[in-house]
Amino acid sequence: MSMLMWICLIAVWALLVSTEGQGFIDDDSNVSLDVDNRDDDSWTSEAVLDVAFYLRLYKFNDFDRRYYLKSDKNSSYFYAQFPVPPLISFHWEVYEKCSENVLTCLKYLQDVISDTQFQRISSTVHVMRQMNWTMEKNSNMIRMVNDECLRLKMSDWEKPVPFRGPLDRFRWRVTASYFMCWYTMQNISLLSVFNEPCDDIGECYRAEELPDFRADNKLPYQCALYSFCPDPCCPLRRVTAPEECHDVNPCRHTMTEATEKSCKFVRNQNTRLPSVIYNEWNVSCACTAGYEYDSRYGACIDINECATVSDICDKNSEICINLRGHHKCICRWGFTWSTDQRICVTDTAVKRAEIRFASRNDFNSVKTSTSIAASTNSIWTIVKNIWHRHSPSLFRSGS
């Protein structure tokens, strides 16, 4: 291997382990949630909207720049999951600010985004909403704004100012998304409701179409989830109805009818930052009676009622048997089912047999002990006779 290649490999290794990235944390102890959950500052609402728009650009349009030079169907998937494999290290500056608290994180992210070329205020969709324009009445103005929107979008795509390059911006956006998604799971109130629709994913003007049902600002934290987090329950770029998710969500393999294949994502069951980073999501699927969904296996598994439900059977007279989808209580030894009383009652025939068996065992035990003693004495007599017959006379006299 040439010296130049060795130098390149060493340089790449040094970049990966450099202090400009922070290693993943194994728990959340280094990240602070010490923040006043009241939205007292007017800047926070605008900051949330600016950050959400910029991170939606990454989620719905960017690709994994670590391994690809251009976007294709294999490299653009962040609406479904965070990058796989995850970043080797966080973007150092994002980690430094966002591990402090959510307000410090938002302020820093907004300051950086304000220096980028393509921002929320440049989006055609945003301008149309602010000005209350329609294509029927304001088509010329919309076309002018849209031309500028497309120009800025292309310029930002080719020249990622203020970052050092496309890869640096990728690491910045991914790290910011990690933290903003994780903060969404923590019930931070300033992320609960946005002050405007959140379905703008940076496409500039688009013809009238049905909105994505997931970008519903009326539901608490729904816009934050749509902007910052992948969607394990509906891993599609754009959908208009929940039914479109049935054939791709984790619940498609559950034992329910198609109309019941709904996937539920519960925020308070996904609060660990490492789990967010590694796409270890806890989701719930509707299962048939006697089964429950387990995210580890991605399927409905049998509920062991005998282990999870106390006093499900009578402890004195019954034994619980777990079966597929249900359980059954059967009578213990010495009990039998009474069709009249509908309970397990003492089986008199078994009790009488046990008494007879116990008595016979006691007699046999005495008899066996006597036989063993007699046999032992006989064996010992035989041994002594053999010994006296063949031993020297010296020992014979002592017998």
Automatic annotation (TrEMBL):
One of its GO terms (molecular function) is calcium ion binding. The keyword Repeat applies. PANTHER family: EGF-LIKE DOMAIN-CONTAINING PROTEIN. The keyword Signal applies. SUPFAM superfamilies: EGF/Laminin (SSF57196). It comes from Cinara cedri. Pfam families: EGF_CA. It comes from the Eukaryota. This is EGF-like calcium-binding domain. Residues 1-21 form the signal peptide. Keywords: Disulfide bond, EGF-like domain, Repeat, Signal. Residues 302-345 form the EGF-like calcium-binding domain.
